[in-house]
Amino acid sequence: MRLVLVGPPGAGKGTQAEFIAAHLAVPKISTGDIFRANVSQGTPLGVEAKRYMDAGQLVPDEVTINMVRDRLAEADAADGFLLDGFPRTVPQAAALDKLLVDMGSSLDLVLELVVDDDEVIRRLSGRRTCRGCGKIWHIEFDSTSREGICDRCGSELFQRDDDKAETIANRLVEYSSKTAPLVDYYGAQGKLVGIDATGPVEDVTLRAIDALRSYGG
For the sheet containing 28-30, what is the strand order? Predict the structure, then answer.
C-alpha cells in the first residue's frame, strides 16, 4: 500500500507513521531521514541540498523530489511505503503524482490526522525539555514528580522557543496556507480519509488501521 500522512504540527504524525508503517510492513519515509542520509553520505543531491541549507535557504522542490524518487526506487519500497512530511504543498503533490506515474504506480490513500488548533497548542505548548539529558516531558500528559525538574537526571526543564504558544500559532498559519490545501487536492482525487487524532495514541492508531482495512490495507 502506498500512503501519504498529512496533518498539522502536533497532530502526532511521526508517532502514528511508525505504528501504521509497522502494521502494513512498509517503510516509513520522511523527508528529514532522506535529507540526513543524502547529506551524511555526500551524494550529489545531498551536496546540493547542504549548499542551500548552509545558506539558510529552503531546498528547492526539484532537489527534494529527486531525493524522494531515489528513495522510492529502493527495493524495500517496491511493495509500498508511507510518506511522512512530504508532500507539503500542492505543487509537491502534483510532482509526486507525476513521479509515481513515471515509476508505474500511484498513491492508494492519503490519511489526514484531524485535530483542531486549540488542541495542537495545548499539546505543543505543554512540552518541556530537559537541559541535561534532552528528554521531553509534558506538564499534563507526562509530568515530572517535581515541577521544572527532570525525573531522569535531575536537570532543569525549559520550554523551547518552538513550543511557545505564539510560535505554534505562526506554524499553524503557515500550515493552513501551504499544506492544508493538500486536503482539497487529494479529496478531489477521492483518496483522502480523515482520522480523528484526538485522544490516546493507541486509539488514534486503531482508527487509522480500521480506515485502512476499509480500503484493503
Answer: 28-30, 81-84, 2-6, 109-114, 192-196
Position 180, amino acid: A
The per-residue DSSP string of 30-85 comes to EHHHHHHHHHHHT-HHHHHHHHHHHTT-PPPHHHHHHHHHHHHTSGGGTT-EEEES
C-alpha cell at 42: 555526500
Phi-psi region of 113 (alpha: psi -120 to 50; beta: other; left: phi over 0): beta
Q: Are 163 and 127 in contact (CB under 8 A)?
A: yes
The answer to whether 53 and 148 are in contact (CB under 8 A) is: no
* C-alpha distances out from residue 122 to 15, 60, 113, Å: 17, 33, 16
- Closest of 41, 40, 104 to residue 69, by C-alpha: 104
For the chain, the straight-line distance linking the first and the last C-alpha, in angstroms and rounded, comes to: 7
∠ CA 47-49-55, nearest 5°, is: 105
- Active site residue ranges: 13, 88, 127, 160, 171
Name the pTM for this structure: 0.85
Q: Across all residues in the chain, what is the average pLDDT?
A: 93
Tell me: the pLDDT tens digits for 59-71? 899 999 999 999 9
